[in-house]
Specification:
The complex is a heterodimer of chains A (116) and B (116). Chain A is mainly beta. In chain A, 0% of the residues lie in helices and 48% in strands. Classes of the chains: A mainly beta (116), B mainly beta (116).
Chain lengths: 116, 116
């Protein structure tokens, strides 16, 4: 079974530039998550989709971050404009169903972003 | 607000030693608790998931315990091997009365190095 795919793996940009990340979840997984992991910290949930609808985006900085999930499959996360503090690893995860007690999330390898 | 703390932040042990990683959380209203492993440049891999009604879970050389009332979990690794070297993250899923989200609150992780 193929895992969660993410691209690019690395990205270096200057502040105030724009950047976009792409995620392809495991086939058949209805729920998709984007996390931000700053160096030395645990991942923090940015946004959660159920199919193509947003379930939770309470921690997404909406003035600069946006995300969409087209047709309930692939997803893109965009930052515009980027700030120095956005330097982090952006992890995408997916799970089969939303509220199952035994449900675990499967993570992709992440995109490492450096903002100069 | 739920907060998750992990100690120690880093640990170095000789091969073959048994070790314990600690995780504490401030709010006992949790749905479940998971331990993840994160290797450099890779995503997170779920190791063990403990339901709030359970006391422990075991998988091979790994044993995780949960004391919800005191807000603590431990991950016990028996007979450590160099291949166990990684960052170990603890995450709790808060109890949502609405049942709509699957948010995970992560700790900052413990970086484990097992010396050959």
């Amino acid at each position: 079974e193929a895992g969660v795919a993410q691209s690019p793996r690395y990205k270096i940009i200057e502040k105030r530039q724009s950047v976009a990340f792409w995620c392809n979840p495991i086939s058949g997984h209805a729920t998709l998550y984007w996390y931000q992991q700053i160096l030395g910290q645990g991942p923090k949930l940015l946004i959660q989709f159920q199919n193509n609808g947003v379930v939770d985006d309470s921690q997404l900085p909406k003035d600069r971050f946006s995300a969409e999930r087209l047709k309930g499959v692939d997803s893109t996360l965009k930052i515009q404009p980027a700030k120095l503090e956005d330097s982090a690893v952006y992890l995408c995860a997916s799970s089969l169903v939303l509220a199952g007690a035994q449900e675990t999330q499967y993570f992709g390898p992440g995109t490492r972003l450096l903002v100069l | 607000k739920q907060e998750v703390t992990q100690i120690p932040a880093a640990l170095s042990v000789p091969e073959g030693e048994n070790l314990v990683l600690n995780c504490s959380f401030t709010d006992s209203a949790i749905y479940n608790l998971q331990w993840f492993r994160q290797d450099p440049g890779k995503g997170l891999t779920s190791l063990l998931l403990i339901q709030s009604s359970q006391r422990e879970q075991t998988s091979g050389r790994l044993n995780a315990s949960l004391d919800k009332s005191s807000g603590r979990s431990t991950l016990y690794i028996a007979a450590s091997q160099p291949g166990d070297s990684a960052t170990y993250l603890c995450a709790v899923r808060p109890w949502d009365y609405g049942g709509a989200t699957n948010k995970l609150i992560f700790g900052t992780g413990t970086l484990l190095a097992v010396q050959p």
